[in-house]
TrEMBL record:
Keywords: Calcium, Lyase, Secreted, Signal. InterPro entries: Pectate_lyase_PlyH/PlyE-like, Pectin_lyas_fold, Pectin_lyase_fold/virulence. Belongs to the polysaccharide lyase 3 family. Its EC number is 4.2.2.2. Its cofactor is Ca(2+). It catalyses: Eliminative cleavage of (1->4)-alpha-D-galacturonan to give oligosaccharides with 4-deoxy-alpha-D-galact-4-enuronosyl groups at their non-reducing ends. GO terms for molecular function: pectate lyase activity. One of its GO terms (cellular component) is extracellular region. This is Pectate lyase.
Amino acid sequence: MHSQALFVASLVGLAASATTNTNLQTSFPTPSSTTNLAAVKTIAAGQSFDGGMMQWDRNPSTCNDQAEGGDADAVFLLQAGATLSNAIIGPNNGEGVHCLGTCTLNNVWWTDVCEDAATFKQSSGTSYVNGGGARKASDKVLQHNGGGTVAVKNFFAQDVGKVYRSCGNCGTQYARKSTFDNIKADGADVVAGINGNLGDTTTIKNSCLLDSAACWLYKGVTSGEPSKTASVPDGQVCATSAVKTSGC
């Protein structure tokens, strides 16, 4: 019986994973229903949560325009090694998803970004954003405050400021890495804002950038405001390949 139960459980797990579409999609999904949370929902270290393609949001709203929020203002708080899949994040939250360590976001969508869509705080290692998308972000979508790498694949961004930003003025700074593979940005100010003076690197490949810059380079600081140093790829700190800017 025990072996049979494990077999059934494995089939259920396979069925669930089969419904997670991490391909590039350029139409925002319609939620199956809406769940409003009074407090942030935590996904424990190493655990996975499937949002069932429901819209997840906060009530009362924690969105305060561009005022910087914290973990308590997010919808989901992922501990180290956690995975969030098949979730639509609504407009009534300030911080979307916070990852305290490395995390994986599969087919996660943000319908109307307030301050940030997702914030990555790991000190090292790689976090993954597979599929999904975000729209209506006046500033940042993916905020990288920790170290390590954020790897983005098959992601769609529409009418946003920065798809990704390596923190420009965190008290503790890192040499951060970011990668973008087969993304589509439509009306983004820029895909990646990175700190060239701190050892950041980014690569953007096999992607479609419509009315969207590839990268902006900054002089990162630990206090005060960072200053922009360049607005085009330099081939080293920011490298691009097979990037189209029309007809895609």
